[in-house]
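Every protein is a chain of amino acids, and every chain bends into a shape of its own. The fold becomes a row of whole numbers, each drawn from a learned catalogue of backbone shapes. The protein below has been through that process, and both of its lines are reproduced in full.
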Amino acid sequence: MTNAGTTPLRIGLLGTGPWARNTQAPALAAHPGVELSGVWGRRAEAADALAAAHGTRAYSGEEGIDALLEASDAVAFALPPDVQAPLAVRAAEAGCHLLMDKPVATTVAGARAVAEAAEKASVASVVFCTLRFAPETAAWIAEQAAVDGWFTARAQWLGSLYAAGSASEYADSPWRREKGGLWDVGPHALSVLIPVLGDVEHLTAARGPADTTHLILRHTSGASSTLTLGLSAPPGAAGVEMELRGERGTASIPGWAGAETAFRGAVDALAEAVRTGVPHACDVRFGLHLTELLAAAEEQAQARD
């Protein structure tokens, strides 16, 4: 396994769906410090097409996973969470560093298995929570985390993925339809609020319309926050807002350039963790913690139904 000096980090991609095609594969293929070592897909024809588009080798089938791991220093995942989790354990056991999508898994046991495997194998890891790696929002988070005196925060992340008339290719994702906005966009919001306001001491959850979930959080700093998360809002109601209020006034999160730019930032973060041996703050242990919070929220919300 190579990772030192100017040697490119060989990263294999597991998955061939919309996120792989639109974000991960283009970002990895264009990254100057990365060699896209191959693409694995459950369907051979999809892996062939995506690999050909980016000048790399295609892998498929069970034996293809082991071959890609052998050819890679790290692997990136563009798979449903409960498919990626056991494959991440397998990759860590093979000595590959992990660049995972959020959520790491939709069960605490699945996420814990990944964290334990990464720790045992001493591999680096990053969980791709978009706002932690997009340059504009990452800088804003760091700036607000350095400020004391936040009193409360409000986060609203409403998509229209499942609204009437939606033609988004991401709406075909069975796990998103089953788990809803809590699990899909909840990690994004939590990944912003926790580094600024502190860990979550207490959580209250309740269902809203369709797949919408409302959360009330109390943080270790003493601040509180509210979150509204969903994927089924009418198009005119969709949008992302995050606002902090405190002793110095208010601060609102800026816009960001897009997922591909943010993913390149996540690749940079993984490469830095590999080079230095210093864990990134948004690693699989943080991914496990997010899963614990989301599972607790889901349990509460279901109990109130």
Notes: The two ends are 50 Å apart (CA to CA).
